């Protein structure tokens, strides 16, 4: 006689829905997800999704919060500890460690879905959906503000506008790379065969970020040189002005 399939508890059902939605989100983004895909992947009916979350928008917000809340709590706690210990001796390298180390450790934790955590981060911070963007921009506004102020204190030579541009550019580039997937291969390539130890990975990642944040501002001479280049006949011919 065939044994009856164990009945899922409400908590188990909710977790299965979150796992399915997260996997689909990582694979293709929010707009590519459908409720039919979610129910099929989770092996539940639409009523179960509606009971636990009410809508697709609320479901993706729960998916984001499940991963990003613990991450940002860890980031803020580490930043606060470094600020307390170091005071005026704190540098932008310390701020970057507080930003990146919790993510690296969560991706290596062995917890469920940890192996795709960096891919998830890349997708979350690059997904163009207004639902995702608004949630991240509002739900984590305090965390973003804490880190921006820390960067301002450690990089006082940069104006608010320059700092914002450099952070958006550097973090956007990193998120875009992570969103492409295959993060384990990227980590091996990034550490150049030295393994994926925390210090090796962080040192290479932070060195690139520091270079972007501390690069000298362009002076009049730099503009003159670039102006001469873009006006060369070969450049004008191959890349005509709009």
Write the layout of secondary structure elements.
Blueprint: H1 10-28, H2 35-42, H3 46-52, H4 56-86, H5 92-107, H6 117-126, H7 130-139, H8 141-154, H9 160-179, H10 183-190, H11 198-214, H12 220-230, H13 233-238
Helix pairs in contact: 1-2, 1-4, 4-5, 4-7, 5-11, 6-9
Number of strands: 0
Give the biggest sheet: none
Give the name of the CATH architecture of the domain at 67-216.
Orthogonal Bundle
CATH superfamily of the domain at 67-216: Tetracycline Repressor, domain 2
Rg = 22 Å
CATH fold assignment of the domain at 67-216: Tetracycline Repressor, domain 2
Please count the helical segments.
13
The fraction of residues in strands falls at under 5%
Q: Looking at the chains present, what oligomeric state does this protein adopt?
A: single chain
What is the molecular shape?
A: globular
Q: Which spans of ≥5 residues are poorly predicted at pLDDT below 50? A: 1-5
- The pLDDT mean sits at 88
Distance between the termini: 75 Å
- Which class do the helix and strand fractions yield? mainly alpha
Quick take:
The protein has 242 residues and is mainly α.
Explain this structure.
- With 242 residues, the chain is mainly alpha-helical.
- The chain has a domain at 67-216: Tetracycline Repressor, domain 2, CATH 1.10.357.10.
- Helix content is 73%, strand content 0%.
- The chain has helices at 10-28, 35-42, 46-52, 56-86, 92-107, 117-126, 130-139, 141-154, 160-179, 183-190, 198-214, 220-230, 233-238.
- Helix 1 packs across helix 2 (35-42) and helix 5 (92-107) runs antiparallel to helix 11.
- It is globular and about 70 Å long.
- It starts with 9 loop residues before the first helix and ends with a helix.
- The model is unreliable at 1-5 (pLDDT under 50).
């Amino acid at each position: 006689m065939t044994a009856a399939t164990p009945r899922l508890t409400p908590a188990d059902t909710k977790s299965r829905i979150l796992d399915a939605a997260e996997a689909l989100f990582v694979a293709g983004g929010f707009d590519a997800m459908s409720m039919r895909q979610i129910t099929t992947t989770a092996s539940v009916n639409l009523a179960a999704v509606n009971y636990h979350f009410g809508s697709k928008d609320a479901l993706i917000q729960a998916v984001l919060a499940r991963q990003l809340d613990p991450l940002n709590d860890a980031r803020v706690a580490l930043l606060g500890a470094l600020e307390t210990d170091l005071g005026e001796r704190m540098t932008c390298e310390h701020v970057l460690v507080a930003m990146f180390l919790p993510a690296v450790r969560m991706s290596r934790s062995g917890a469920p879905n940890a192996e795709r955590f960096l891919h998830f981060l890349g997708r979350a911070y690059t997904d163009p959906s207004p639902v995702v963007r608004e949630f991240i921009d509002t739900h984590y506004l305090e965390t973003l503000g804490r880190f921006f102020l820390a960067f301002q204190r450690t990089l006082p030579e940069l104006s608010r506008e320059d700092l914002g541009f450099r952070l958006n550019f550097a973090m956007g580039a990193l998120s875009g790379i992570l969103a492409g997937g295959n993060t384990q291969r990227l980590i091996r390539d990034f550490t150049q065969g030295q393994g994926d130890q925390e210090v090796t990975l962080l040192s290479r990642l932070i060195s690139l970020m520091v270079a972007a944040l501390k690069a000298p501002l362009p002076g009049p001479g730099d503009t003159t040189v670039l102006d001469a280049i873009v006006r060369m006949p070969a450049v004008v011919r191959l890349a005509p002005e709009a």
